């Protein structure tokens, strides 16, 4: 009796919140597996949802490393490339390998790379670490272009997505690729969510917030950093597979250049560091921004607003936004979202 | 206690010899061996010296700490108190001298093994994890007891869950002991300074250390907060039996709280004994009056 009372006091179950969470999860499933496949246009899936999902996953991965563990990286694009080319080769060279296994192996390859290029983090910090992760960026692009083996001797290093199927079911259609992508992203995000709320996730934050104190209380700092690089690269690698196989369908090494690394970094800055939701908000923003700008530009300036102007205006808007977010709202869209929710909540109650 | 004045002359000679021999310190080593084999000595420092680019922060400091005592280390700003704590916790490596912790002797204490050696500490400047709640900050203090891997945590396997449950229970006990219940679920960075200091004490205590190093735990606090903190420090010793090294500026607090006091001045130990002995020591009075009128403005009351 007394024990029960004590437990109840320690773990107050907030039923309203639980119901709200369940409702949210149900809605998510209904939209992801019901509404979108049934009603979304091919354009919406191919031009918006597929890049959004792949970039969201990459941002979740980078956020683990940079947002939670405090290790700045500019190598995301390289880890995506390792994932994509890894999956291509595993699929090509191992007869009948199931797609899920191919993806996991690709992720593990990227994780291995992540650990190797994470080694400098044991010595370097912040800006210097970021510069050293550039090495990954240049090395991977060089290796993939230099050695034809990686692209099955395609003269320009281009790879094409293989036939995608799970348990004999073809996923090559836009809807099939969407289902593959959304399922992968949901499963991995759920695992990351478990991770960041576990003792390991708190070790990441401890290393980020005060490395010395973390070391003294017994956090294995070196192991924690390398683990963050490994898991982060694993996830980014699988995001690379999605990018190559479900979205672009054909990619060359140059598609995974430094611009892409910066894009993923901008996603987590705009969305909010150390926030899983922020990775999705940021990715949505980055994907929708050019579409929005081109519509707006065409409306305001008509034919004068060509793709060159669009590209430039996109860079300017993005640059300005990064600066504004870094100064005015370092916690990103995710924090804005929270504040909005609270304001609406307080008005309605 | 063990005849500070009697020992002083012998130590002085030892330091001369060690200065001549420059590296080896056989006298100190033998003394350390003798001390570290005594079960009632939790910590023994012998001939500790460290300098930073020509500045001698500590020279030839000996110190022993007995089980269950509150051992104060006082001295003016820049006397080398924090350096001493940093050497004991392995964050600084002494240029000379040895450190014996619970019978194990080191020339460099391995900081990453400190918690497992039974030593916990707080920092002069707050060193909390700003992005974690109070409860999670405290729970981190037991990270050295964890064995479950990240896979076990993600999958929620039995070992991970039982570790979490055990640590949550210990955390709750410390939260109650230090009266932190009302703020336990707040982000630690949002707390006022005095409470953050208390959370840092909680994070150290939850490790159940044999030896606790407190670097100015009451600095910057109001008189009420200081009294409260002093009460917690004493209670930690009385109830948990932890041995404490306490660095503190407020002489009133030190004299009331500690069993023995060591005084550092310009990196040298100039006195060591009971509060009454130290207060009457002419060298201490000289050092303190010297600085009280000087730039540091330390107060001796
Ligand atoms: N990491 C360091 N680098 C350079 N000098 C240091 C360092 N730590 C301490 N010192 C110097 O050592 C001396 C003692 O400092 P400290 O141990 O912090 O004294 P206290 O804690 O007694 O005020 C000071 O002169 C200080 O400048
Ligand atoms: Mg100090």
TrEMBL record, chain A:
Q: Which CDD domains match?
A: TM_PBP1_LivM_like
The organism's place on the tree of life at top rank: Bacteria
Q: Which Pfam families match?
A: BPD_transp_2
Q: Where are the transmembrane segments?
A: 22-41, 47-65, 96-119, 126-144, 178-196, 226-248, 260-276, 283-304, 316-337
InterPro entries in alphabetical order:
ABC_transp_permease (IPR001851), LivM-like (IPR043428)
Protein keywords? Cell membrane, Membrane, Transmembrane, Transmembrane helix
Q: Name one GO molecular function term.
A: branched-chain amino acid transmembrane transporter activity
Give membrane topology per the record: Multi-pass membrane protein
List, alphabetically, the GO terms of the cellular component aspect.
plasma membrane
Q: What is its subcellular localisation?
A: Cell membrane
Location, primary (coarse class): membrane
PANTHER family xref list: ABC TRANSPORTER PERMEASE PROTEIN, HIGH-AFFINITY BRANCHED-CHAIN AMINO ACID TRANSPORT SYSTEM PERMEASE
For this entry, the protein name equals Branched-chain amino acid ABC transporter permease
Native organism = Mesorhizobium wenxiniae
UniProtKB/TrEMBL annotation, chain B:
**Any stretches that span the bilayer, and where are they?**
none
SMART domains (alphabetical)? AAA
**Could you tell me which residue ranges the ABC transporter domain spans?**
43-291
Q: Source organism's superkingdom? A: Bacteria
Keywords on this record? ATP-binding, Nucleotide-binding, Transport
Q: Which GO terms describe its cellular component?
A: plasma membrane
Q: Name one GO molecular function term.
A: ATP hydrolysis activity
Q: Does the keyword Protein biosynthesis apply?
A: no
Q: What is this protein called?
A: ABC transporter ATP-binding protein
Organism listed in the record? Mesorhizobium wenxiniae
């Amino acid at each position: 009796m007394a024990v029960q009372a004590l437990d109840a006091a320690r773990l107050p179950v907030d039923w309203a919140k639980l119901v709200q969470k369940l409702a949210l999860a149900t809605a998510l499933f209904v939209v992801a597996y019901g509404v979108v496949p049934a009603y979304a246009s091919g354009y919406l899936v191919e031009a918006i949802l597929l890049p959004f999902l792949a970039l969201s996953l990459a941002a979740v991965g980078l956020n683990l490393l940079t947002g939670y563990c405090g290790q700045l990286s500019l190598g995301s694009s390289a880890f995506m490339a390792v994932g994509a080319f890894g999956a291509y080769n595993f699929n090509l060279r191992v007869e009948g390998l199931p797609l899920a296994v191919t993806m996991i192996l690709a992720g593990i390859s990227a994780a291995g790379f992540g650990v190797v290029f994470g080694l400098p983090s044991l010595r370097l910090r912040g800006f210097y670490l970021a510069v050293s992760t550039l090495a990954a960026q240049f090395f991977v692009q060089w290796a993939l272009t230099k050695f034809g083996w990686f692209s099955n001797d395609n003269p320009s290093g281009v790879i094409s997505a293989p036939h995608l199927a799970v348990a004999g079911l073809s996923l090559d259609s836009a809807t099939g690729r969407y289902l593959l992508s959304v399922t992968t992203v949901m499963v991995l995000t759920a695992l990351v969510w478990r991770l960041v709320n576990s003792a390991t996730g708190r070790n990441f934050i401890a290393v980020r917030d005060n490395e010395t104190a973390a070391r003294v209380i017994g956090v294995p700092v070196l192991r924690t950093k390398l683990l963050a690089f490994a898991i982060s690269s694993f996830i980014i690698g699988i995001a690379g597979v999605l990018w190559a196989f479900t979205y672009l369908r054909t990619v060359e090494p140059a598609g995974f250049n430094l611009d892409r690394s910066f894009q993923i970094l901008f996603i987590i800055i705009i969305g909010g560091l150390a926030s899983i939701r922020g990775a999705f908000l940021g990715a949505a923003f980055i994907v929708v921004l050019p579409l929005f700008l081109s519509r707006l530009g065409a409306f305001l300036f008509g034919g004068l607003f060509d793709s060159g102007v669009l590209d430039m205006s996109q860079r300017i808007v993005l640059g300005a936004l990064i600066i504004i977010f870094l100064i005015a709202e370092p916690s990103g869209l995710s924090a804005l979202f929270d504040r909005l929710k609270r304001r609406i909540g307080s008005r309605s109650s | 206690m063990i005849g500070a004045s009697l020992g002083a002359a012998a130590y002085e000679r030892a330091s001369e010899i060690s200065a001549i021999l420059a590296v080896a310190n056989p006298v100190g080593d033998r003394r350390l061996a003798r001390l570290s084999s005594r079960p009632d000595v939790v910590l023994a420092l012998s001939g500790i010296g460290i300098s930073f680019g020509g500045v001698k922060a500590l020279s030839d400091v000996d110190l022993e700490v007995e089980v269950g005592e509150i051992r104060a280390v006082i001295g003016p700003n820049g006397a080398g108190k924090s350096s001493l704590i940093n050497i004991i916790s392995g964050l600084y490596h002494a240029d000379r001298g040895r450190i014996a912790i619970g019978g194990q002797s080191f020339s460099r204490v391995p900081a990453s093994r400190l918690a497992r050696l039974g030593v916990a500490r707080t920092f002069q400047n707050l060193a909390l994890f700003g992005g974690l709640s109070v409860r999670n900050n405290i729970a981190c203090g037991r990270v050295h007891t964890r064995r479950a891997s990240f896979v076990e945590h993600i999958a929620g396997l039995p070992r991970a869950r039982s570790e979490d449950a055990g640590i949550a229970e210990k955390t709750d006990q410390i939260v109650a002991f230090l009266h932190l219940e009302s703020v336990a679920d707040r982000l630690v960075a949002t707390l006022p300074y005095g409470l953050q200091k208390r959370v840092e004490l909680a994070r150290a205590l939850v490790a159940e250390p044999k030896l606790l190093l407190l670097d100015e735990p009451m600095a910057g606090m109001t008189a009420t907060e200081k009294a409260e903190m002093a009460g917690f420090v004493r209670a930690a010793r009385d109830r948990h039996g932890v041995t404490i090294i306490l660095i503190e500026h407020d002489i009133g607090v030190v004299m009331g709280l500690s069993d023995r006091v060591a005084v550092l001045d310009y990196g040298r130990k100039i006195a060591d004994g009971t509060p009454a002995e130290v207060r009457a020591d002419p060298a201490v009075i000289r050092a303190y009056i010297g600085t009280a009128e000087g730039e540091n403005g330390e107060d001796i009351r």
